[in-house]
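Duplicate of #3305? Posting structure anyway:
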């Protein structure tokens, strides 16, 4: 048999073997941590619970730093209109977030004035909440939008008065040591079990007229300039409408 053919055959088999090793990894390496998953609505065992139906100890008022003035009734948290947006006491980077929310059953107003709220990743990037059941508005302002940037792939909203569920995978932006953006934020959003944002690249903070990434920035309503290259808190918005929440938890990734 031709020696060159044998050599090429050996190299080919060797390359496949190396590729398989790279894909399969080390079969005797460390095993993944064992956790308890979501069971009958209960959070995973490694989750950080931000609202369990009992108290709002994980949150404070965004401006004053005082305790939340939102209402808790029968395990449900409801915006106390005009009392202000809430900010989480803990800061986060990459996360898996679960949050259930419900616009008021009573239809008041239209467009952006109907069941409006939002959850802000890192106090900068808003995932819009809105009563989008038969309620036309600008496309990147409806429920499931990366606000003012991307509309949802489909409108998966339930009727007003019914619970909605968001499951969000958020990848935080990465900055170089000199403050230059290395990698933007990404969002995957499942709304009521339906994929509506698929690893969407966030263009920057969602509340300025022009989206932007800044290493030193002023997050939404926080009113102070800070280092925005690391972990930052979540914001839960008071937009002046009646919106309720339950079962808020996340896992750090």
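Output from current build:
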């Amino acid at each position: 048999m031709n020696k060159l053919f044998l050599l090429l055959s050996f190299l080919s088999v060797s390359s496949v073997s190396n590729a398989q090793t790279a894909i399969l990894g080390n079969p005797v390496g460390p095993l993944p941590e064992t956790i308890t998953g979501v069971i009958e609505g209960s959070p995973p065992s490694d989750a950080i619970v931000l609202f369990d139906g009992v108290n709002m100890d994980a949150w404070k008022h965004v401006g004053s730093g005082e305790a939340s003035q939102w209402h808790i009734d029968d395990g449900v948290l409801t915006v106390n209109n005009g009392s202000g947006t809430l900010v989480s006491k803990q800061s986060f980077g990459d996360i898996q977030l679960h949050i259930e929310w419900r616009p008021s059953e009573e239809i008041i107003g239209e467009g952006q004035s109907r069941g409006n709220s939002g959850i802000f990743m890192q106090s900068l990037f808003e995932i819009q909440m809105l009563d989008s059941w038969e309620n036309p508005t600008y496309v990147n302002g409806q429920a499931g939008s990366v606000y003012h940037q991307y509309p949802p792939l489909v409108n998966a909203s339930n009727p007003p008065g019914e619970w909605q569920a968001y499951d969000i995978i958020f990848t935080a932006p990465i900055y170089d040591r000199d403050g230059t953006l290395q990698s933007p934020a990404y969002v995957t959003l499942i709304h009521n079990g339906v994929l509506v944002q698929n690893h969407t690249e966030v263009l920057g903070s969602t509340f300025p007229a022009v989206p932007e990434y800044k290493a030193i920035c002023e997050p939404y309503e926080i009113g102070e300039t800070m280092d925005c290259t690391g972990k930052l808190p979540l914001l839960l918005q008071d937009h002046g409408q009646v919106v309720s929440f339950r079962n808020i938890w996340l896992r750090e990734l």
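Confirmed duplicate; merging threads. Residues 3-19 have pLDDT under 50 and may be disordered. The chain is about 10% helix and 35% strand.
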